[in-house]
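Risk register update: the risk of archive-format incompatibility is retired. Evidence:
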Amino acid sequence: MKTPIAGGGEQSITDRLRSLIKIPTGSPLILGIGDDCAIYRPRGSADDLLFTTDLFIEGVHFLRDTHKAGDVARKALARSLSDIAAMGGAPRFCLVSLCVPRWANRRWVDTFFDTLIARAAETGAVLAGGDLSQGETLACDVTICGAVPRATALRRDGARAGHEIYVSGMLGGSALGLEVRKGKAWRRHLNPEPRLDLGVCLREKLRATAAIDLSDGLSLDLRRVCLASGVAAHISPPPRFPGATLEHALHGGEEYELLFTVRPHTRVPAMFQGLPLTRIGSIVEGPAGEILFDGQPLEPLGFDHFKTSK
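Archived output:
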């Protein structure tokens, strides 16, 4: 799961797509490819709409012998909810497309949707539609529409030299759980908690300058913020989930915690609703995307679908 992205990878594909797409002048589409969500501003609306979508695929994101139908539903939904949280938004509705293989019987499908509908209702992301198909591999695509007050969405491109870097929670638990498949770490892996309330707090109270959800690993996701903002970063060891290694905390994916930056002297509380908020470093001037960990270059070894072989 940990592979260098230098010389290719997902970033190079999205960079190329972004260069090909030109948003027309005057379009209500304010932000396209390159952040956690696209931003659409309906004319005359007091809110901006946030749109995100995420695939959840058997054999890539989960295994049928370790993830029950309810686990798949919760994790598939959490991935997209976490994107909304990273931009400080509130979910409005979701669309779910599901490709059902022959091994998934009616009971499996019913449990999947019962779990997803219940969890979606708790967050305000009512299920509004989608699509069903049959195929060889189970795949789920969750699209969520969220909203923020006009021109207030948290983005990746607002970090500036001197801003301080924080993370929520204790990192490495999901990666540890995937390895040991037992105990609190395994439960952490199976039941991620999108930080929706924290995202709103970052936007409304702390006035965060940039944010991203930690889905692919701290080292890779922080690099994305630095690339978008044209800055570098210096960090120290992040807080670790009990039993997790430093490598788990730096590079492990599927955390769904929030990484954010704030202006100097911002009073960030040590806890938010029982969740630790920890300063791990600062934004500095330097080559865009460079991260120094305890003074040494940190390679972005988070999860990349399009890794190149060596």
